[in-house]
Design a protein that fits this description.
By secondary structure, the protein is an alpha+beta fold. The chain has helices spanning about 5-30, 75-105, 110-130, 130-190, 200-215, 295-305, 405-430, 460-465, 485-490, 530-540, 555-590, 595-630, and strands at about 40-45, 50-55, 55-60, 65-70, 220-225, 230-240, 245-250, 255, 255-260, 275-280, 315-320, 325-330, 350-355, 360-370, 370-380, 395, 445, 480-485. Strands 11-12-15-14-13-16 form a 6-stranded antiparallel β-barrel. The protein has a 4-stranded antiparallel beta sheet with strand order 5-6-7-8. Strand 13 and strand 14 (about 360-370) form a beta hairpin. Helix 2 runs antiparallel to helix 4, helix 2 (about 75-105) packs antiparallel against helix 11 (about 555-590) and helix 7 (about 405-430) packs antiparallel against helix 10 (about 530-540). The two termini are about 20 Å apart.
């Protein structure tokens, strides 16, 4: 049968439960403004009934206080983390896309259209009066255009460097969060093995995951740890994976990321800045930067830094010639953008090439024409020599980053610059100078050598590249384009005319100048056939076409890309920002502290505590009467 003091035991259990509920409510109220705090509640259940061997069967034994638990819904946490990953990605893209858009905007003073139109104006002045002064004005306008591309090239490379620096900052941030997560995991297990729940530490862990999810995509998994008999213990194994399933934290063990700067002679793209970071795990395993599953700020930064619009080097190794220290590999590619040297963006200083899923180092390359390249491989620098076994293997340099990042915009500038300069040079070098006697003219546009003093000559631009033939104007980029020094010093070396007076013994006196242009057609007067040819080329997309537009359409094409990317980033950012608010509201409605609700709980638990106290008082009087006054 039940003890005489059984009722007191029941009342005291109610008193303890009410007291725990009051304390928990007070804790909730104290943390109503605490970021990341999850509302807590006391979990109770009826105590096991006591068999009393009486007609009424079993007697209730009061209440058992099981635990103080967080009110949290993992479903909304996972939705929030997934949304933060997208929000972080487009936040990074929006910032840098807006900067690129600002770079390309035309201010009607120093923008592309203004400078390009000035070239046409100064050429028209030459047709009216073929004087040294007018030629000098044209050269000044042409130099202003080359300066524009030089500056834009520098600005975009500086932007790429800034993105690269931020990638390292984010990698360090991931390392810091990983360390904190491992520490918190250990603390949680230490506490929960004693039978308590580490609610505040679990809140801290969730806040760390919130922070991590904005930087990179996150997957979490919590598994119970079992003992030797297979019975679950109070401890748990908490695993955090990032970037498409790569393990970052496993219980109190964590991995860190290391940013490894690429050597100056190892680039993916010709116009990449020196020292771009590759990311490795601390254990030497490569961190997969280009996997499609990665998200967050890190993905946005990688796409801005390395985005090539999906145009990267790829092909098939058709022949391998092995030598002890070096090997050569011939690669066939069918991609149209790899068969046009004006679009070529391969590194001119060497780099890493993937042949049959093995990395090698190439020192130079030659374009053989018809989509065929020959690379020279440094076997001493590679992990293993390149042998004939790799014939017919798939080959790639870099990776497919199907986004229009900094490399894309630089390659667009390089493509326009190469095609435009070649077109203008081809016209002027067919002309004659104003010297006495006239001579065959030289080119107008050239480029400075990238790593030494001097300029490329006409022969070098027509016949060779840094490493071989058939690469056209590959040597000219938006960063090094300039005017030939000799022409700048003496404008009369510009090949403005093609036909001259037959009495001079050079050419013919056929006049090809368009009628009504105001140019004196009297025999012996200098003509400007080549100037008219350039003027015609500037506005005729049948003679010069860039993405279906004439020469002056460059800015519209590139600026439309930048504007569209910025607009898309802004739209997606606004969408995910709105979703963040909605999901967070849903999450807060479950786990957040509501002051009104807690105030009602205070009244409810106070009444429970008071009633339990009164029950103890009543039982005290009963025991007093029973024991002291009846003498039992």
């Amino acid at each position: 049968m039940a003890s005489t003091f059984f009722g007191l035991t029941i009342a005291s259990s109610g008193l303890r439960a009410a007291n725990a509920a009051l304390n928990t409510t007070g804790n909730n109220i104290s943390n109503v403004q605490t970021a990341g705090y999850s509302r807590q509640e006391v979990k109770t259940e009826a105590a096991n009934a006591l068999r009393v061997f009486a007609t009424y069967g079993c007697a209730g034994a009061g209440v058992e206080t099981l635990a103080i638990e967080r009110v949290r819904d993992l479903f909304y946490d996972q939705k929030y983390w997934a949304n933060e990953t997208k929000l972080g990605e487009y936040d990074a893209k929006l910032y840098y896309c807006n900067m690129i858009q600002e770079y390309f905007k035309d201010d009607n003073k120093t923008g592309f259209k203004t400078l390009f139109d000035q070239i046409g104006v100064t050429l028209q002045e030459i047709t009216k009066n073929v004087s040294t002064e007018n030629k000098a004005q044209f050269l000044g306008a042409a130099k202003a255009l080359t300066d524009y591309f030089n500056n834009m090239y520098g600005d975009l490379r500086d932007l790429q460097s800034d993105v690269n620096d931020e990638i390292k900052i984010r990698a360090d941030q991931i390392n810091s969060i990983a360390q904190d997560l491992a520490t918190v995991n250990k603390q949680i297990n230490t506490i929960e093995l004693t039978g308590s729940l580490a609610n505040e530490l679990r809140d801290k862990r969730d806040m760390l995951i919130d922070e991590l999810s904005a930087i990179v995509d996150v997957q979490t998994q919590e598994l119970p740890i079992v003992d030797q008999e297979g019975n679950p213990t109070a401890a748990h194994r908490y695993i955090v994976k990032i970037a498409g399933g790569q393990t970052l934290v496993d219980m109190d063990q964590y991995r860190t990321l290391t940013c490894v700067s690429r050597p100056d002679d190892e680039k993916v793209n010709q116009s990449d800045v020196d020292g771009l970071y590759d990311i490795m795990w601390s254990d030497g395993i490569e961190f997969s930067l280009y996997n499609a599953s990665m998200g967050g700020i890190l993905r946005g930064l990688i796409e801005m830094r390395d985005g090539n619009n999906g145009e990267y080097f790829k092909g098939t190794a058709t022949n391998v010639a092995f030598h002890k220290s070096i090997s050569t590999v011939t690669i066939k590619t069918t991609e149209p953008y790899l068969q046009d040297m004006s679009k070529c963006n391969l590194s001119d200083t060497g780099g890493v090439i993937n042949i049959g899923n093995q990395l090698y180092y190439y020192t130079k390359w030659v374009y053989n024409g018809n989509g065929e390249y020959t690379f020279t491989i440094d076997n001493n620098k590679s992990d293993m020599p390149l042998t004939q076994e790799k014939t017919w293997s798939e080959v790639s340099i870099g990776g497919e980053m199907n986004y229009q990042g900094v490399p894309y915009y630089i390659s667009q500038m390089n493509e326009w610059v190469r095609e435009f300069t070649k077109k203008v040079n081809d016209i002027f070098k067919e002309g004659l100078t104003a010297e006495d006697p006239p001579k065959k003219a030289d080119i107008l546009f050239t480029a400075d050598y990238p790593r030494q003093d001097g300029q490329y000559t006409q022969k070098e631009l027509d016949m060779s590249s840094p490493n071989g033939e058939n690469t056209g104007y590959y040597n000219i980029t938006a960063g090094n384009i300039t005017l030939l020094d000799a022409v700048v010093k003496n404008p009369d070396l510009l090949g403005t005319r093609k036909d001259i007076d037959k009495n001079d013994g050079v050419g013919t006196d056929q006049n090809t100048t368009p009628p009504g242009d105001g140019v004196d057609e009297i025999e012996g007067k200098e003509q400007c056939d080549q100037v008219w040819a350039v003027i015609s080329m500037l506005t005729d997309k049948n003679q010069f076409s860039f993405r279906g537009r004439d020469a002056g359409g460059f800015l519209e094409c590139v600026l439309s890309d930048a504007t569209l990317n910025a607009s898309n980033a802004e739209t997606f950012y606004a969408t995910y920002f709105s979703l963040e608010t909605n999901i967070d509201n849903q999450r807060t409605s479950i786990s957040g502290v509501d002051e009104d609700e807690e105030a009602m709980n205070l009244v409810k638990y106070e009444n429970s505590y008071t009633l339990a106290s009164k029950m103890i008082n009543v039982l005290t009087e009963i025991y007093d009467r029973l024991i002291l006054q009846t003498g039992v």
